[in-house]
Amino acid sequence: MTDWEELLAQACARADAVVSKSVTPAKRRRVVGTGAAGDRTLAADRDAEREILRALRAAGPLRILSEEIGRTGDTDARYIAIIDPLDGSSNFSRGIPFYCTSIGVAEGETLGGMRYAMVRDLVTGDVYYAEKGRGATKNGKEIGTSTTVDLAQSVAGIDLSRATVQTLRGLVPLLSSVKRQVHFGANALELCLLAEGKVEAFVDVRSRMRITDFAAAYLIAQEAGAVFSGAEGERLDPTIALGPRFSFVGSANEAIHSAILERLRSGTT
User: Fold this and answer.
1) What is the percent of the chain with per-residue pLDDT over 90, rounded to a whole number?
2) Which residues pair with 70 in a beta bridge?
3) How many angstroms separate the CA atoms of 105 and 117, rounded?
4) Domain count along the chain
5) Which helix (H) or strand (E) holds 45?
6) Quick one: pLDDT band at residue 40, thresholds 50, 70, 90?
7) What does the pLDDT average to over 199-215?
8) Do 122 and 172 fall within a single domain?
9) Do residues 9 and 109 both lie within one domain?
């Protein structure tokens, strides 16, 4: 039987080891091609992915969906690993210290099948982990979401990057309601901030989120107590594939979640 926590820890540690070797600006910015998701592939992306795949061989037959190589592996395997070897690669290339490795494991073909997840902060070395139904941890200690229920006292991560003017206008009621809006540029790590109660929400309504950036940290945040839905409150269960993009709202609790959805609805009327 696979010890997924240990296996994912080994995979993330191997990714960390190769990424940490890219210490000069030239090495950080070295581009080696275009990944399956359509973004440029840094040498660090490629090397981290290679090491993760080597580590995951210990799991036996496994389907793979990774941001760089796309879909591969044993098509008949029970589990699929969803990998972002270097989430926040733009930050990494510029020397901004906020990026991570993200690996999730699911059964089936949608987000609802998530079973195991790990995110490793490649700057601090902090490790977030979750198993379905067993809670979430940071460095082995249980974590939970914020208990703040007043939207006016909340800090919300809101991704505005390349948002359309229409989307920005729709966000005005929410932006004007929170205490502070932040965005750091690595989705998986930002969801982990939600999981450990450092922010009250993470919102992306641009229809640009990819499953590889999201799946692992989604399970971690959910197991820590976070509430998720689509931008209109609908059930969130995107397909595990590189093509589909989606919007979401993730909140620390039901009270904050309801308040955010109300503000988003008022922005579209």
Assistant:
1) 84
2) 66
3) 6
4) 2
5) helix 43-56
6) confident
7) 96
8) no
9) yes
Q: Average pLDDT, whole number, for the chain?
A: 94
Domain end: 124, 142, 160, which one? 142
Torsion of CA 69, 125, 127, 79, to 10 degrees: 20
Other Cβ atoms within 10 Å of 215 Cβ, number: 29
Return the half-sphere exposure (C-beta side, CA atoms, 13 A cut-off) of residue 38: 6
DSSP E strands in the chain: the ranges are 31-34, 40-42, 63-66, 70-73, 79-87, 100-107, 114-121, 127-131, 136-138, 141-142, 155-158, 180-182, 201-209, 227-229, 246-251
What length does the chain have? 269
Q: Measured between alpha carbons, how far is 126 from 135 in angstroms, rounded to an integer?
A: 17
The arrangement of strands across the sheet holding 246-251 comes to 180-182, 155-158, 201-209, 246-251, 227-229
Q: Could you tell me if 135 and 212 lie in one domain? A: no
Higher pLDDT, 2 or 223: 223
Residue 212 · residue 104 · CB < 8 Å: no
134 shares its domain with 206: no
| End position of a domain, from candidates 122, 142, 162 | 142
User: 229 has which bridge partners?
Assistant: 249
Residue 24 has pLDDT above 90, yes or no: no
Range of the domain at 156: 151-267
Sole residue written with tokens 């229809």: 207
